[in-house]
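Hi all, long-time lurker, first post. I run a small reading group and we've been trying to get comfortable going from sequence to structure in the token notation. Rather than ask abstract questions, I figured I'd post a concrete chain and ask someone more experienced to write out its structure so we can walk through it together at our next meeting. Sequence below, copied exactly:
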Amino acid sequence: MSKHYSSYFTNEQELIKALIQIHNDNKDIECDPMYFKGNFWKDGLNKPKYKFDLNPQIPECEYGDATNLPLENGSLNSIILDPPFLFGIHGKTNQYYSAKTHTIFKDFDKLENCYKGILSNAYRVLKKNGLLIFKCQDYTDSKTTMTHCKVYEWATELGFYAKDIAILNIPQHKVYNGNTTQRHLRKVHTYFWVFIKK
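-- Answer (accepted) --
Happy to help. Here is the structure in token form:
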């Protein structure tokens, strides 16, 4: 009997396993074009067949641009995207852990261009009814950008159906200025959109 999952998780691997069970018939995700060091793929999660990154960190990962993957149209059943979410470099932004290990976009327009590009390419390489899992995070830096709402908008404009969403909450130590008055809740949760190509 399969487990009945809620949409809220505190462990990333358990979240991905649940999405694979419910939305991918327990089959492995075929492609991770933002593989980095493969941090998704542990604790019983099998590594994808296709592993790409703009800056491969390990030998098993090939160079590949997620906006222009070296894959045929309609060749994949499933793909996962985990793009950077930070934008606007100033203040202490570049001291965040994510800033040291991932890209920070110059501004929101750069993030939008990237996200639209990777969504469009995912749509291209997926078969009809193919699965896209898209990890994203809202961001507050003097004002809040509800990035997960924009991802929904951009994906559905392309023709994806938003079938599901899961929330991952892993509180982390964030860089902040203790001398300022807090005006927004800290964003320590991420979203995993489940899109189906229609």
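A couple of things your group might point at:
The mean pLDDT is 88.
Helices lie at 12-23, 97-101, 108-125, 147-158.
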